[in-house]
């Protein structure tokens, strides 16, 4: 708790002091930006590192994930963490995060973070759900062609010194049907690319979606499985999608068809898939994600799919292109900077999305109150009662689940008034975290 407000310091809960004063642009930015510590893991894009350093933050960069004990020790003193898919921010780990304001997932998925617990601690989580869509779609197209021509097996044979020139069960993809399960950003791009190569495209999604090109929506998952020559999965990891492709669904697929999974490792029953490949019911498969994945590069990967016929196994590289990582780095790092500096939660995963327009450059007496509180009746009324004695220029509030988010720009005449507002808001029983930004 900050007891007094001195010129050049602004309080936030969790015992930190920030301030912003940029009389030229009036952008909200921490005055002592070097006090803000960022922990980046898993070799996130150099573009992200550059953006965060240019914001004036202290950036600690690691090329790999950290073990749990090290991560717990590191997270105690940082204001933001950036990670990809291997680091696990569980309730146990996050319970040691005394200063953490935000988490940036430099990837599509966020299942590596306990989102509900993070929200309950006032920690806003961002990701980049669309930046690698093209990279994943291109990988799927490559795998469709590789599977149709059995190129994985031919390449392995050649490396082993075996010349095996065959054409049996090798096909063009022109005229074949691609079935897409999950017609979102990746699925729609994949469909466009497939049609450009002469494929027919059908898809199934639980949400009503506008078809693109000549693609056709199927009435059910079973319809896609029964009709498609190639089936590609693009769904999130949820209880409903766990093992959604199991023994029954594989049996519904056409004999000699192919399955591709670059979504989440829990979507496909790996043992059932291996059985379908070894029996010859499926002509091939390409898998980029697994129920359990190694924490670091190197030997030790085990899977029933190893050595299955015409089976392409890749180490979760669907979005691993220079272009995708650069775009992800820009998007997530920018979200982190905006949230820390101005409170903007647009594109947040576990928070309501709120933002306020910029404060005019000539206005040097307005501060921004940023508050996270439990989503229960009466809290907003308490906050507004506190602000009633001041000139509130604009405000916004919204909620998501058990947590509500509030922002307001308030004009003050005396720095002591900032301290008064801060202490009164943080004294609200349901308060989670409060920040005051200049």
UniProtKB/TrEMBL annotation:
Name this protein carries in UniProt: phosphoglycerate dehydrogenase
NCBIfam families, per the entry: PRK11790.1
Gene Ontology MF term list: (S)-2-hydroxyglutarate dehydrogenase activity; NAD binding; phosphoglycerate dehydrogenase activity
Keyword Repeat attached: no
Entry similarity comment: Belongs to the D-isomer specific 2-hydroxyacid dehydrogenase family.
PANTHER family from the UniProt entry: D-ISOMER SPECIFIC 2-HYDROXYACID DEHYDROGENASE FAMILY PROTEIN (AFU_ORTHOLOGUE AFUA_6G10090) (PTHR42789:SF1)
Keywords, alphabetical: Amino-acid biosynthesis, NAD, Oxidoreductase, Serine biosynthesis
Lineage: Eukaryota, Fungi, Fungi incertae sedis, Zoopagomycota, Kickxellomycotina
Ranges of biased composition (kind: Basic and acidic residues): 13-24
Region called Disordered, residue ranges: 1-24
Encoding gene, per UniProt annotation: SER33
């Amino acid at each position: 708790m900050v007891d007094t407000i001195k010129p050049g310091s602004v309080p936030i809960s969790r015992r930190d002091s920030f301030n912003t004063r940029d009389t030229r642009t009036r952008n909200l930015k921490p005055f002592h930006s070097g006090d803000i510590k960022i922990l980046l893991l898993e070799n996130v894009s150099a573009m992200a590192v550059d953006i965060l350093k240019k914001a004036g933050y202290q950036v600690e960069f690691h090329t790999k994930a950290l073990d749990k004990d090290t991560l717990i020790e590191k997270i105690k003193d940082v204001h933001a963490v950036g990670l990809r898919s291997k680091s696990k921010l569980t309730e146990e780990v996050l319970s040691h995060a005394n200063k953490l304001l935000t988490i940036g997932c430099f990837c599509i998925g966020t299942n590596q973070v306990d989102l509900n617990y993070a929200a309950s601690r006032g920690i806003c989580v961002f990701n980049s759900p669309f930046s690698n869509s093209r990279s994943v779609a291109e990988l799927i197209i490559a795998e469709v062609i590789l599977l149709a021509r059995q190129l994985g097996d031919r390449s392995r044979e050649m490396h082993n010194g075996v010349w095996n020139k065959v054409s049996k069960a090798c096909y063009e993809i022109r005229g074949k049907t691609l079935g897409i399960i999950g017609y979102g950003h990746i699925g729609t791009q994949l469909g466009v690319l497939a049609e450009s190569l002469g494929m027919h495209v059908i898809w199934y999604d639980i949400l009503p979606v506008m078809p693109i090109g000549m693609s056709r929506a199927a009435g059910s998952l079973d319809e896609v499985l029964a009709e498609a020559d190639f089936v590609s999965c693009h769904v999130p990891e949820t209880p409903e999608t766990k093992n959604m492709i199991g023994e029954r669904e594989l049996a519904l697929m056409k004999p000699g068809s192919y399955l591709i999974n670059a979504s989440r490792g829990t979507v496909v029953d790996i043992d059932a898939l291996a059985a379908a490949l070894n029996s010859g019911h499926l002509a091939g498969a390409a898998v980029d994600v697994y129920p359990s994945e190694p924490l670091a590069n190197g030997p030790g990967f085990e899977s029933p799919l190893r050595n299955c016929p015409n089976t392409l196994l890749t180490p979760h590289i669907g979005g691993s292109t220079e272009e995708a990582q650069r775009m992800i780095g820009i998007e997530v790092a920018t979200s982190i900077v905006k949230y820390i500096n101005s409170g903007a939660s647009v594109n947040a995963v576990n928070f309501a999305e709120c933002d306020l327009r910029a404060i005019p450059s000539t206005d040097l007496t307005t501060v921004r109150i940023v508050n996270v509180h439990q989503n229960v009746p009466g809290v907003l009324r308490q906050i507004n009662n506190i602000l009633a004695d001041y000139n509130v220029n604009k405000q916004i509030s919204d909620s998501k689940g058990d947590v509500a988010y509030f922002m307001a720009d308030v004009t003050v005449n005396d720095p002591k008034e900032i301290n008064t507002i801060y202490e009164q808001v943080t004294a609200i029983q349901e308060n989670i975290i409060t920040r005051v930004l200049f």
